[in-house]
TrEMBL record:
Coiled-coil ranges from the UniProt annotation: none
Pfam family, one: Galaxin_repeat
Protein name per UniProt: Galaxin-like repeats domain-containing protein
Domain named Galaxin-like repeats: residues: 98-228
Species the sequence originates in: Goodea atripinnis
Gene3D superfamilies with a match to the protein in the record: Immunoglobulins
């Protein structure tokens, strides 16, 4: 930045920053092959548009249990690791009824608040599992188990109903029982910051992200390789070096 008067000009110091890579796109569907009753092989291709340096893949597993035709009644599902077997159930309700938890109810006479049924009353509103009275004309907002008047550009954050303007973010600090509101799109140790602004959040503290990375909760140079929270110096093997000479 250069600032001038009628007599002379002066320049500020140079500030460097980095841009953030985009999310990978053009992801083809993986191919699954059943090898045995306990093994499945997954094959997938590289994203058509990585939009940056690929750091790795994550394979997530989810167990789906279907109900059999003879399973009826209501039974809570618990983790089989604790000695309780899974048991499926289905609930058949009359036409015009809805489901609240494991019970049928008629929406005209009852209301479901957080899985609990209440008898519908005028000037009452749900808040978590409670059904509170509200005499004001405007619709309230449920925040921290209480009904509060609705205001524009306000949100419930950390148990507080606070003003959050455009391009601002709210970060709760549960240890100190307060919230911090400021410009940004994420939180770092209870402080708002922008992930695209060049700052680096590491171990709950903000740092200048230019040429640096967070590895194992420590700030290190980005030319180093971080594996399992340990820093290593990149050393190409002989095969990779010969391949480079060949090409």
């Amino acid at each position: 930045v250069e600032v001038c008067t009628v007599y002379a000009c002066t320049r500020s110091n140079i500030t460097k920053t980095t841009t953030v890579e985009d999310l990978p796109t053009d992801l083809p569907s993986p191919h699954a092959q059943v090898i045995s009753p306990r093994a499945v092989r997954l094959d997938w291709a590289h994203p058509g548009k990585p939009s940056g340096i690929m750091l790795g893949y994550e394979v997530l597993r989810r167990t789906l249990r279907s109900c059999t035709d003879g399973s009826t009644g209501v039974a809570p599902s618990s983790d089989s690791a604790h000695g309780v077997r899974f048991k499926c159930f289905y609930l058949q309700c009359p036409v015009g009824h809805s489901v609240c938890g494991t019970s049928c109810f008629h929406p005209e006479t009852q209301i479901c608040c957080g899985g609990l049924l209440h008898r519908r009353k005028p000037h009452h509103h749900c808040c978590d599992k409670h059904y509170f009275s509200w005499n004001e004309t405007s619709n309230p907002v449920c925040c921290n188990g209480k009904l509060v008047p609705s205001h524009p550009n306000h949100q419930c954050c950390g148990g507080y109903y606070v003003l959050i303007k455009t391009n601002e973010y709210c970060c709760p600090d549960h240890l100190q029982g307060r919230v911090s509101v400021g410009s940004g799109d994420s939180c770092c140790g209870g402080v708002p910051y922008s992930m695209t602004g060049g700052q680096l959040c590491c171990n709950g503290r903000l740092h200048d992200g230019y040429g640096l990375q967070c590895c194992g909760g420590q700030i290190v140079d980005d030319i180093l390789v971080c594996c399992d929270d340990s820093v290593h110096t990149y050393k190409p093997d002989d095969d990779e070096t010969r391949s480079g000479w060949h090409h």
